[in-house]
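Protein modeling request. Please complete all fields; requests missing the sequence field cannot be processed.
Requester role: graduate student
Desired output: 3D structure, token encoding
Chains: 1
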Amino acid sequence: ISACLVGSEMCIRDRSGAANDPILTIENTRNDVNGARLKFLKDKGAAGADNDEVGEIIFSGDNDAQQETQFASIVATINDASDGAEEGKLVLNVASHDGESQPGITIVSGDAEDEVDVTIGNGANSVVTIPGNLTVTGTQTVNNVVTVSTSNGVQFEGTAADLSLIHISEP
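Delivered output (171 residues):
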């Protein structure tokens, strides 16, 4: 392990030619319920502001031309810095088709107390695949066509009043 100073950047570097190395381990050996922690702290010497980035983890590797390329990142920002109404935002980005970084999952404070909103995908052509079951416990809003493909039929559950809202038409 070596420490280095490149311009104004401090770095810690560990190089290894072995498979699955190097690895950074942060270990907590205390016999309690608390785990090890890694903290990113943004303290710019002035008040925080909306959209300040507070931390980023970058995942880079070589493309097939052996050029270092960022393939993914996790970015945490301040969504609202207002004292007493602080809100955060976490975005998981991936390189999208032409190498530019696009959000794949965005998690952000909602517009009500203790609400958190999640956006999956980026744009109308994004595909979200759920390999298991999906349970919706709130209202489901569909802005386009819902296609149900099944060999076992479709089952609607609810009261008679709920069923009066369902309209089925032939294609």
